[in-house]
Amino acid sequence: MDGRGLRYRSGKTAEFLARHPEDRPILLAAATDTSALGTIDAIREARRERHVAAVEQDCIAEAIAGMKRPRSSMIGSISHEAASYGPAPIVLGISLLRGQTLAPRNYVTYRTANA
């Protein structure tokens, strides 16, 4: 389902759950935390939280809080920490705009943090 990263659009999950009442377990792999939160809203309303495991991206505060709830469907979120990449991606972008040829792969050193 395409929730377009919007919480209210991800509520379409209720229709899916109604069409698949016996399906379990269900993996929810959402593009963003916001999409996952909309989907989780529908999952809670359908009382199917124990049948779903959700993973998403962004690590926004509401998702982190959701993961801390006992028996939450939200089990993980990925934070890309773009702010920790430093100037390297900008330098690469400027090089491309100038028409320079770049290596097929470019790696950026980033900061890691322990939860």
| SSE pattern | HEHEHEH
Domain module tally: 2
Major sheet details? 3 strands, parallel
Number of helices: 4
Amount of beta strand: 5-15%
Name of the CATH architecture of the largest domain: 3-Layer(aba) Sandwich
Helix content: 25-40%
What is the general shape? elongated
CA radius of gyration is 18 Å
What name goes with the CATH superfamily of the largest domain? Response regulator
User: What strand line-up does the widest sheet have?
Assistant: 1-2-3
CATH topology of the largest domain: Rossmann fold
Average pLDDT:
84
Strand element count? 3
Enumerate the spans where pLDDT stays under 50 for 5 or more consecutive residues.
Answer: none
Overall description:
By secondary structure, this protein is of the alpha/beta class. The protein has 2 domains: 9-79, 3-Layer(aba) Sandwich (Rossmann fold), CATH 3.40.50.2300; 81-115, no CATH class. The chain has 4 helices and 3 strands. A 3-stranded parallel sheet has the order 1-2-3. The protein starts with 12 loop residues before the first helix and ends in an 18-residue tail after the last helix.
